[in-house]
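Lecture 7, part 2: worked example. A protein chain together with S-adenosyl-L-homocysteine.
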Amino acid sequence: MNLGKLKKLLANYPDYRWDQVKRAVFQELITSWEEATALPVDLRTELAEEASLGINAKEVVSLQDETRKAVIKLEDGSEVETVLMPHKTRNTVCVSTQVGCSLNCKFCMTGKMGLVRNLEYWEMIVQALFFAREIGKIDNIVFMGMGEPFLNYEEFVCAAEFFNDEKTFNIGARNISVSTVGVVEGIKKLADADLQINLAVSLHAPTNELRSSLIPVNRKYPLEELFEAIDYYLEQTNRKVMFEYILLKDINDSKNDARRLANLMKGRLHFVNLINYNPTGEFQASSEEKKESFKKILENEGVKVGERQSFGEDIKGACGQLGKN
Ligand code: SAH
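Predicted complex, written out as structure tokens:
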């Protein structure tokens, strides 16, 4: 399915045709143009010839939980992964913004494959559409799959707006989140954008030295500049930022690390989400005791802390595991 081509084709028709197509494809979730009964027969025939609705994907379902991972084959043959996390009350899709990633964070599988290319916005949309066709309504979108959203900023914003569009997925901005490694320009642009989505930042270390050793791009965007951008974001939007922190055994999980992290959070309204490390080779996860004492120190310093549950580890669908497995 090539949404870019479809939209271009419909540019020859009055605007309301595009609206009808959006409703049919993203709300009625049709898989064949014959089902688009709101459209005249001629147009349906033309679309059937010119604009396939097929999505070429392989899917795996976790045996541990309900998580599903789909590997979608794109027109140029490259493959992108996307994950569905179904819950009792809401379905979340984790969307990739790039094929691969250029950042090479030491704990992340995607970095190991390097960057293949940026995705077009509609290639992000297709990821959620694939799962919507299987389970119906998608309630949450997290741009936390392969790639760095802010290194593909324009397409990512287009995708977020599309998900938000009441004529398509109609997902409220507060139910859309984006996670960045800390690309400062992106944080500032989002602060100025008219888009009320949630921002998460992959922090993972409280000092420049440690962070640069885990996340090489920290050399380009050191903590001082990162927090300056985050302060600006808070000023402009009044929205709290979520900081992701993977606990890596004997690397970033000491009491001192916790105190330093608390210091970075001081006076800021943000909150920290502690993440269990999902095996990708080099590191080990911190023990439960370490995690509890790390959490206590943050809480005692008045920092709001949560823990991210991880899903789909057995299908290599958990955070940091997307890549050439
Ligand atoms: N590039 C963006 C978007 C990816 S989001 C970013 O860095 O935020 C994926 C999240 O999973 C990030 O917080 C990332 O740091 C985290 N992650 C990467 N590898 C992981 C691993 N092995 N275990 C747990 N989390 C991991």
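The longest strand covers residues 79-86. DSSP finds eleven helices and twelve strands in the chain. Keep this in mind for problem set question 3.
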